[in-house]
Amino acid sequence: MTLALVSSPQSLYCNTLTSSNENAEKEAIEKTYEKFDILVETLKKGKGWMTEYLVQFQGFWLSPSSALKGVLFVQNHFKSQPSDIFLATSVKCGTTWFRALIYATINRSNYSFNTHPLLYTGPHDCFPFLDAFIYQDYLVSHSTSSNNHLSPRLFATHIPYGLLPKSMITSGSKFVYICREPKDVLISTWLFMNKLRPKHLLPLSLHEAFQMFCEGVSHYGPYWDHVLGYWKASFKYPNNVLFIKYEDMKKEPLFHLKKLASFLGKPFSEKEEKEGVVKEVLKLCSFDNLSNLEVNKTGILRYSSRIFVNNCYFFRKGEVGDWQNYLTEEMVKHLDLITMQKLKGSGLTFGSPDYLKLNL
Fold first, then answer.
1. Region of residue 321 (phi > 0: left; psi between -120 and 50: alpha; otherwise: beta)
2. Calpha distance 51→39 (Å, rounded)
3. What is the band of 6 on the pLDDT scale with cuts at 50, 70, 90?
4. Is the four-CA dihedral 286, 289, 295, 299 of positive or negative sign?
5. CA-based nearest residue to 56, from 174, 220, 211
6. What are the φ/ψ torsions at residue 218 (nearest 5 degrees)?
7. Averaged over 169-183, what is the pLDDT?
8. What is the pLDDT of residues 322-353, one digit of tens each?
9. What gap in Å lies between CA 36 and CA 32, rounded to an integer?
10. How far is Cα 206 from Cα 227, in angstroms, rounded to an integer?
11. 55 in helix, strand or coil?
12. Half-sphere exposure of 95 (CA within 13 A, CB side)
């Protein structure tokens, strides 16, 4: 006797609905690609750092093949959840370090420090880069769930606050924003981008990089506009946007890690503090520890379908004030003046010297 398996009307409906949703999403994605192809040809171009050129979109400079595409997909397809946590930064502002810190803090009850995932998995693989992975290889709904299925979902992004869709801002998600002294950002970006710059393009000189940075033509720049967007949002939405200076975390790591944990809804208990859990997190995520792990010496990060980056590139020095080894006195004065002018009246400072305050 042969038994015929008959699907229930409910299961047939669910399968049809799923198929219909996937088809609709595929069509929407195709439209976004079409929009991208048309849009990129209309935008103003500027010289690129690791690409031939950048394009200016809604006031910010983006690499067309990755950043611009990522912004369009986030704006049109990403569905944020109230429990999502976003690490937002401009380029080279401590993203790798804070990826590790947030991941270890959120998951501290799930793993032992002796067998922690960060010991054999790079911070970037534990903490997906939303801007790139959202449009790669599979449906957007898959790329933002199967790679990051635990709750809360953790995403890193370089997208300026002004380019985020309103749905992300009003969803209740948490944003941790890290900023850094502009002079250190310039030097770190210049050195990093030259490592990634294709061989058919000549390396950028420091003079070229300095001029471009000062003019705002940098990845996700102008840098000061990027910083101010999240700075202002941290006052408007204090429960959802935490603004931290890289230099402050370096100076008082215990204090700021506990502040970070509380903001994320995972405060350290008195018992954890007495048992040294906070210090263990800092030790695990320290530059010395992470940079000496085999995965971060020899591992490779897939940034996009065409860009692969050695993990070791993300670990250079991790120091404050390395700009002093590269910039001339004239460069320092010029960049400090721009910073003072750009941030004037905002309440945000980067410790610029007193001689500039006399001119403003």
1. left
2. 18
3. very low
4. positive
5. 220
6. -145, 165
7. 96
8. 999 999 999 999 999 999 999 999 999 997 55
9. 6
10. 23
11. strand
12. 27
Would you say 105 and 281 are in contact if contact means Cβ atoms under 8 Å apart?
Answer: yes
Comparing C-alpha atoms, which of 94, 69, 98 is closest to residue 85?
A: 98
Which tokens in the block code for residue 23?
A: 């088809």
* DSSP collapsed to 3 states, 146-196: CCCCCCCCEEEECCCHHHCCHHHHHCCCEEEEEECCHHHHHHHHHHHHHHH
* Whole-angstrom distance, CA of residue 51 vs CA of residue 179: 24
Tokens at 157, concatenated: 């992004």
| Percent with pLDDT over 90 in the chain | 60
Exposure string (b/e) for 56-95, b if CB count within 10 Å is 16 or more?
bbeebbbbbbbbbbbbbbbbebbebeeebbbbbbbbbbbb
CA distance 137 to 327: 42
Separation CA 182–CA 179 (nearest Å): 9
Which amino acids are annotated catalytic? 158
Q: Are 233 and 77 in contact (CB under 8 A)?
A: no
**Residue 172 contacts residue 240 (beta carbons within 8 Å):** yes
**pLDDT score, position 295:** 62
Q: What size, in residues, is the chain?
A: 360
**Angle subtended by helix axes 277-284 and 253-263, to nearest 10:** 100
CA 155 distance to own-chain centroid: 8
Q: What angle do CA 162, 239, 348 make, to 5 degrees?
A: 60
Report pLDDT digits (tens) over 256-291. Answer: 999 999 999 999 999 999 999 999 999 999 877 877
